[in-house]
Amino acid sequence: MSNINRRSFLKISGATLIGLTTGGITLRASAQEKLSLDNPSAKALQYVHKSEKDGQDCSNCMHIQGDANKDWRPCALFPNKLVANKGWCAAWAKAN
């Protein structure tokens, strides 16, 4: 059994922290891809880029995230994808 001294522990912890941070940056960067209408999840939830429902679009849905001034934003229902502010899907729920 190997003993890990304090210095080794700090090196391993620091490397792990850097790896997790870099991984988080990579995940955020991949979220820049717009959701395709061919995506299986988009099809299952009947997602469209332009809502035909009065008063219902992604911009006023509880699942939308990110900057309200952007035309495309992250959605909790479609991980690592961006949805159109004017879009809609069957899981739409009015934001508070």
Automatic annotation (TrEMBL):
Superkingdom of source: Bacteria
Molecular function terms, GO-annotated: 4 iron, 4 sulfur cluster binding; electron transfer activity; metal ion binding
One GO BP annotation of this record: aerobic electron transport chain
Entry keyword annotation includes Metal-binding: yes
Subunit structure as annotated in this protein's UniProt entry: Homodimer.
Keywords assigned: 4Fe-4S, Electron transport, Iron, Iron-sulfur, Metal-binding, Transport
Residue ranges annotated for the High potential iron-sulfur proteins family profile domain, each copy included: 29-96
Family: Belongs to the high-potential iron-sulfur protein (HiPIP) family.
Protein name: High-potential iron-sulfur protein
Source species: Lacimicrobium alkaliphilum
SUPFAM superfamilies, per database record: HIPIP (high potential iron protein)
Keyword Iron-sulfur: yes
UniProt function note: Specific class of high-redox-potential 4Fe-4S ferredoxins. Functions in anaerobic electron transport in most purple and in some other photosynthetic bacteria and in at least one genus (Paracoccus) of halophilic, denitrifying bacteria.
Pfam families in the record: HIPIP
PROSITE patterns: HIPIP, TAT
